[in-house]
Give the backbone structure.
Amino acid sequence: MHVYLPIAEVSVSPFLLLGIGIAVGFLSGMFGVGGGFLITPLLFLIGIPPAVAVATSANQVVASSFSGLLAHLKRRTVDLKMGSVLLCGGLLGATVGMIAFNALKQLGQVDLAVQLCYVVFLGLIGSMMFVESVLAIRRARQAGGTVSAGRRRRGWVHGMPFKTRFRASNLYISIIPPVMVGFGVGVVSAVMGVGGGFIMVPAMIYILGMPTKVVIGTSLFQIIFVAGFTTMIHAATNFSVDIVLALFLLIGGVVGAQFGTGLGARLKAEQLRILLAVMVMIVAAKVGLDLTIDPVEHYNLSEFLGEN
């Protein structure tokens, strides 16, 4: 049994699409990421054109993130004020990223650019998170318990102007760093078809100094609006959002996010970070491998021209 995707112009098993949606939704609720960094490469693998995969992935991110956010709101682990500041930068970044995406598309280099972005961003961020998480777990074992979640040392973030208090995160910092983080995530979201959580979560922890439990819900809050904005822009400019594909991914994502949120609440902060780091590095390695190995089938125009 297969279903035809009108925009992607391919036929795919609906059970496969639901499975992908559930898996990505599970990760969204567990780690506070939109899941686009995983779902877009998976759509590549099942034959979805890159432009359609990027646009439709952003749409699925909205549903899985919203489902996960509802669960975090019940637990009161969302900093709405911080999320709003991040959102301001995110919407501006998504606009800039969309301009860059359309420029690459006109040059015919959008497929290569998206895949290279995955390899570079995921590889660097995953490696840094993995090393930091391993060191944190080692320090916890040496100390005979969990590492204290005390305040980080004062840095450049605390020395900038326009400070405000974020009570849910127990922070008093400038609004400039959150806006900068949101802007960067917005650009990545538009170009790569992701929610940007794989960048947002480490940035909120290591740059802004937010507690991990609050980071997850706040990241989902910001991702919903940025990914939704990105989807609308792609639909209006490129007409590349496949509604049928999005529907199956949405259903799976909403279901998976509820289970992921429950499991994430049971794990320690260091465990969550190291699991996310491993997942990010696996995806980066797979995309990088696809760029380096020879394709199974080579197209040879000389044979076709010779026959004619």
